[in-house]
Each structure stands twice: as structure tokens, then as C-alpha cells.
Write a structure and sequence with these properties.
By secondary structure, this protein is of the alpha/beta class. It folds into 6 domains: 103 residues, Rossmann fold (3-Layer(aba) Sandwich), CATH 3.40.50; 40 residues, no CATH class; 121 residues, no CATH class; 78 residues, no CATH class; 203 residues, 3-Layer(aba) Sandwich (Alkaline Phosphatase, subunit A), CATH 3.40.720; 66 residues, no CATH class. Helices cover 44% and strands 13% of the residues. Helix 16 runs antiparallel to helix 17, helix 20 packs parallel to helix 25 and helix 23 packs parallel to helix 26. The protein is globular and about 75 Å long.
């Protein structure tokens, strides 16, 4: 069966037109599968965002190569209707073939506004349903919502009739991170509210808010563990009896066969926290064991064993969509967080957890490296909603500010913080301030995973090839940050940037600046982790220990309080992670390399890079996609560094999962 992509891709045959301008109001050409296929056919794809940025790209990245005769066919995607093509510079438009694509052409019998809100990855299931069960007539908005819920998300609201049905749906939705558009969420809640069974449930929050749903489950877990109750007793129990924060029934059917499978995984992966309970020993041999804290050492050993089994069976391959790796990375981070705890001492039947861990890590490195080499090049062209790469974060903040006149947003960039280290930070923050709520996602950093490349892209809101003149320094980050927000219509006085934050004593200047009534957006660099990393001699375990100690010092908690008290919505991210490495020898290239970092060397001459690479057969000559011309990276092999073989530094710059996938967290104070 032909898919929806075929209707688009048949328009793109290599050599037909050197330059194509495509009006694409629904972003169809920026879907991952389309981008991959176009790249495989030899096309280069770029988005038209504004005249200045496009002219810079066109002249420096396209026309100069075209004049040298070494250029792929270029596709320029305009996120607007065909009538908006006059936004393209005249000389480019005159030389181009013009095309137009829209969801209305692909799904003519479904409501356009409803379909357009879907993630583009959901269009496969929708197209298949349209072919399998074509609507006999055009459907209105409500009917289209029902069609999509049933055929794309497998949800039939009319069949959710009891608590276990609702829990199964909510668990499947939030565990798998299924992205329902707000329009579909509202429709689903409206239908469910018609059933008196769910009159007291906080449906709007539970359906839309992943963290709220897990908090709802967490506070009802001890209620479930209390002595078993009959249906009559359970019906008489109220939220007030237990002091619960969320409305709804006090007891919910955790023990339903389809529910408890998810509950077990949620405890395993850290979304729910095991608790001490008087009946802990009574249920220690049952399925509920995962949610009981009895013996911390044994609990960690058991959890590590099961997590390793889980990642072995759920590891994506080199053909997986990028969403699979972003979803897998937090699970692997949970494994690392357990392994790098100083007091972890786990032995199992297959020769010991360290041996098994090393074996699994090797498989992940191999699969992720293969995936990155094939697919990383197209990531920066993906739409920023939801964000995929770190340079798209300012777009997220901009949407928040445009949604409300008085909204304020803060971006805290923790330089060098790996995803597993974020888990350590989060644990300490949750102990210091139990009222905090964390909405966690993950993003791809830029490769090479260097501060000058990835952090600067974050504050510039653009891929690195746009700041070639400052790629070797971070000194122009403040100007790039202000330039982005100036383009978004903010006055300079409304924009703040500050760096070198690591101690409580550094917060005075921040407090003064965020209290200014006209400030609406602030970017902050907390570099404590980076400082710890560059002085670390005790490996990843030492990193975890030092990061925990630093977080317990209270600087980060105090910073969050300052931002919350001033009315800011707070986002936290990192520019790259880090890994424990071993030396493979330092290249004797003298002054040949433009930059000499532990995990990467940067050259401006491809011949010089290749000459050094010959001495390191497994080193990777990284392609310059998204990077400035002449910025040629040589990445150290595997988990090695370009240092003496006797050295074991914690470093960054390479392409391991721990370096490339970083946390992106919205933090709230309840």
C-alpha cells in the first residue's frame, strides 16, 4: 500500500531542477521520513525563515558551491501558502521550480484544522485508516476527532466505562509519551465527562499532564497498599480521609492485570518512587514488590538487573526514528545513575553487573554511532514543535511569551550536565523543595559536543553555520541571545544574559536583574558541572558524587526560588553531556589543529585532518552538515580521548548517547 509520502516524493527526481521552492504550510517536507528520502536522493533541504538568514545561507552555503560545480539539488521549504511565495527573494524565485503541498490534498475528507494539529509521525496511521475505511462523505471537526482517536491512537471513548479502562488508556498514553493535540484531548475529556463514573476524576489534568498523572498515581499507591478493602468500603473512602491533593476516588485498581504491567515499569524507570509501608513484607513476593522500599542495597541491585534487561530488549537500531532514541536515552540514564552511585555493589548470575553493563553499553554505542552517522544530518531541519535539537529551545520560549502578554521565561543552561547526572540533581532538588514539579523531555545537542558549538547554538537559536565568526569562542553568546529576541520583537531592556554562575554568592546580580519590571526573558549559564568535570580524576562515579554535593549546597534551589518569585517560567537544559574515557594517545600535530580538545580535534584543511586520522583508524571524520565551512572535526574513537594512554579523563566532544542527548526540563513550583 502506497503511503502519503509517495504523493510528495514523486515530485522529486534528481537532476530535474537544481532549485525548488515548495510552499508547505503544513510542514510535510520537514517530516523525518521525507527528509531522509530526499537526502538519500541527493537533495539538500532548507527552511525559509526570514530573508536575511536565507540570503546568508543561499550565498555562503549554496551559490558558492554551485559555482564550483559541486552541489546537490536544493529544496527551499516555505511554511506558508503558495500565495506567500513573494517572501522569497526575486532572483531566487525566478530561477526556481515551484511546488505546493498541503494536508488538504492528502486527506480531503477530514477536517483540515484537526488533522494539521497532529504530529507528522501520526500521518502514517491516519493515511492507512483512510485507505482501509474511507469516510463516505467529508467529516466535520467532531467526527474527524473521533476518527483520529479511534484509528490513530486506538482510543474509543465510548468503550471507557470503568476505572481500569481509564487507567489503561492514561498509562498507555503517558508511558509511551503519545502526543495528543490539545484539540483531541479536549474532545476526549468532553466525551468521558458524560459518564457519571468519572464525575469526580480530574480528567482535564490527568489526560493532558503526564507529571500530574504520575503524581495522582503516587499519592494513591500507599492507599492501595493498605489492608485490602471491599468495593463497599472503597466507595465510602474519600480523598479527605487520606489528605490527597488530587480529586477522584481514593482507591484505584492498581492490581488490574493490564494496569499493573505499566505500574511495574513506572517504578522500574523512576517515574514512580517506591515507598516504605507497614505491609511491605506482606507483599514482598507479589507483583507490587517494585513499589516497596525494604532493603536499599537489594532494591538497587534488583532494579539495576531489571533495567539492564529492559534496555537490552528496547534498544533502538540504526533505522529507528529519532523519537525512539530520545525516549530510550532516559531509560539508559537510569541505568547509569544506579551504576555510578558510589555504594552500588551488585553481582548477578551472569558474571556480575559490571560485565553485563559493559556489554550492553558496547551494543548501545555501536547502534547509536551507526544511527548518528546516517540520520543526524537531517535533525536540524525538523520543525521545532516539539523541539528536537538544542538550538530550537528559544523557539519554545518565544511561543510561551507570545501566548500571554505578561509571560516571562528563564532558560538555565547547566554546562556539561549529562542526562544521568540530571537525575542526581533532580533527586536532591526534590528533597530540598518537595513542591517542585519536573516536566522532562530530552533533546539532541550539536556534534561535536563542544560548548562553543552546542551552547552557542542554544543561545543563538540557529544552527552553528550561522555563527562561523564566533565558532571558536562563547564571548558573543550575549549578543546572539539579544539578537534572537530582538527578531521576536523584544526591546533590549527586556532581555538578560548571565554566565559563570556556580555559588550562592553569584546570585546577587541575577536577583537584581530579574526583579526589573521590564525583563521578560533571561538566559543563565550555570557552569559548576563543567568545572567539576574538567578537574575530575575519579571517573563518572566521582562526577555523580561531586554533583550531588554541589546541588546539596543549595545554589540551584536558591536560583530557582529567585526566578519563581519574580514570575518566570523556568526551563533547564544542558549543552552536552560527558563520559568517562581512556587515552588513545595525543596526536603530534603541533599547531596544525585549530582546536585541540580531549575528545575532538578541529581542522580547517581536510588533508591535514585525514593525515592525523590515519594514525587513529577508528577515529571519525565528522561531516560538516550544519557547521561552518572549514570547521572539520576529527572525533576520538569510541570512548577514548586524545590524551596519554595512562589518563582516564571525563570529557565531551564525541557522539556517545551520554554526550549527545541532553535533558530539557520545565520546572514548576506547585
Amino acid at each position: 500500500m502506497a503511503g502519503w509520502r509517495d504523493d510528495i516524493l514523486r515530485e522529486f527526481t534528481p537532476g530535474v531542477a537544481r532549485l525548488t521552492i515548495a510552499a508547505d504550510p503544513d510542514g510535510l517536507l520537514l517530516e523525518a521520513g521525507i527528509l531522509e528520502t530526499l537526502r538519500a536522493r541527493g537533495f539538500q533541504v532548507t527552511s525559509f525563515e526570514d530573508r536575511i538568514a536565507f540570503r546568508f545561507f543561499y550565498e555562503s552555503r549554496y551559490r558558492s558551491r554551485r559555482d564550483r560545480g559541486g552541489l546537490a539539488d536544493l529544496v527551499v521549504v516555505l511554511r506558508g501558502e503558495a500565495s506567500n511565495l513573494d517572501a522569497i527573494p526575486y532572483d531566487v524565485l525566478q530561477a526556481a521550480r515551484r511546488l505546493s503541498f498541503s494536508l488538504g490534498d492528502l486527506f480531503p475528507r477530514l477536517s483540515g484544522p484537526v488533522v494539521s494539529a497532529l504530529d507528522r509521525g501520526d500521518l502514517d496511521a491516519l493515511h492507512a485508516a483512510q485507505v482501509r475505511e474511507p469516510p463516505g462523505r467529508p467529516l466535520g471537526e467532531s467526527q474527524t476527532r473521533g476518527f483520529i482517536l479511534r484509528h490513530v491512537f486506538g482510543v474509543a471513548p465510548e468503550r471507557i466505562r470503568q476505572a481500569s479502562d481509564l487507567l489503561r488508556f492514561l498509562l498507555r498514553r503517558h508511558y509511551r509519551r503519545l502526543r495528543l493535540p490539545p484539540d483531541l484531548e479536549g474532545h476526549l475529556v468532553l466525551v468521558l465527562r458524560r459518564d457519571p463514573m468519572f464525575a469526580q476524576w480530574p480528567l482535564a489534568r490527568l489526560v493532558s499532564d503526564r507529571e500530574a498523572f504520575f503524581a495522582f498515581l503516587q499519592e494513591r499507591w500507599p492507599v492501595f497498599l493498605d489492608a485490602p478493602a471491599s468495593a463497599t468500603v472503597a466507595a465510602r473512602e474519600t480523598v479527605a480521609d487520606y489528605g490527597l491533593a488530587f480529586s477522584g476516588p481514593a482507591r484505584i485498581p492498581f492490581d488490574d492485570s493490564d494496569v499493573r504491567i505499566y505500574i511495574d515499569n513506572l517504578f522500574l524507570e523512576g517515574a514512580l518512587r517506591p515507598i516504605a509501608h507497614p505491609r511491605g513484607q506482606d507483599v514482598a513476593e507479589s507483583w507490587a514488590r517494585a513499589g516497596i522500599a525494604i532493603d536499599p542495597g537489594a532494591d538497587r541491585a534488583r532494579r539495576l538487573d531489571r533495567l539492564l534487561a529492559s534496555v537490552e530488549t528496547s534498544m533502538p537500531d540504526d533505522a529507528a526514528p529519532h523519537q525512539d532514541w530520545l525516549a530510550f536515552a532516559p531509560r539508559w540514564a537510569q541505568v547509569n545513575a544506579l551504576v555510578f552511585q558510589a555504594d552500588t555493589d551488585v553481582v548477578n548470575g551472569d558474571g556480575g553487573a559490571p560485565v553485563r553493563y559493559d556489554r550492553v553499553r558496547g551494543r548501545i554505542d555501536e547502534a547509536f554511532t551507526a544511527w548518528v552517522r546516517q540520520r543526524f544530518e537531517t535533525l536540524h531541519n525538523l520543525p521545532p514543535s516539539p523541539p528536537v535539537m538544542i538550538h530550537q529551545i528559544p523557539r519554545v520560549l518565544a511561543r510561551r511569551l507570545h501566548e500571554s502578554t505578561g509571560a516571562k521565561a528563564a532558560l538555565v543552561v547547566m554546562d556539561g550536565l549529562a542526562l544521568d547526572q540530571w537525575l542526581a540533581v533532580r533527586e536532591v532538588l526534590a528533597q530540598q523543595q518537595p513542591e517542585l514539579r519536573f516536566r522532562e523531555d530530552s533533546l539532541f545537542a550539536w556534534i561535536p559536543t563542544l560548548t562553543m558549538v552546542s551552547r552557542q547554538a542554544c543561545f543563538a537559536g540557529r544552527p552553528p553555520f550561522y555563527f562561523a565568526g564566533s565558532i571558536d569562542t562563547t564571548d558573543r553568546e550575549p549578543a546572539a541571545w539579544r539578537r534572537f529576541w530582538g527578531d521576536e520583537g523584544l526591546d533590549p531592556v527586556a532581555v538578560v544574559y548571565a554566565k559563570n554562575l556556580r555559588e550562592r554568592s553569584d546570585l546577587g546580580a541575577v536577583e537584581e536583574r530579574v526583579s526589573h519590571p521590564r525583563v521578560r526573558v533571561i538566559g543563565l549559564v550555570v557552569d559548576a558541572v563543567d568545572r567539576i568535570m574538567h578537574g575530575m580524576t575519579l571517573g563518572s562515579g566521582g562526577m555523580h558524587n561531586q554533583i550531588r554535593q554541589w546541588t546539596r549546597g543549595g545554589m540551584l534551589a536558591a536560583l530557582l526560588d529567585t526566578l519563581f518569585d519574580s514570575g518566570f517560567t523556568v526551563f533547564l537544559t544542558s549543552d552536552h553531556g560527558n563520559v568517562e574515557t581512556r587515552g588513545c594517545g595525543a596526536p603530534k600535530e603541533g599547531s596544525v589543529a585549530d582546536l585541540r580538545a580531549q575528545r575532538v580535534r578541529i581542522f580547517s584543511d581536510p588533508a591535514l585532518r585525514s593525515r592525523v586520522a590515519e594514525r587513529y583508524p577508528n577515529a571519525l571524520e565528522w561531516p560538516a552538515s550544519g557547521l561552518p565551512e572549514g570547521y572539520l572535526a576529527l572525533l576520538a574513537p569510541g570512548r577514548q580521548s586524545f590524551v596519554r594512554e595512562s589518563e582516564r579523563p571525563v570529557a565531551h566532544g564525541g557522539i556517545t548517547l551520554e554526550e549527545v542527548v541532553v535533558p530539557f526540563v520545565e520546572i514548576e513550583r506547585a
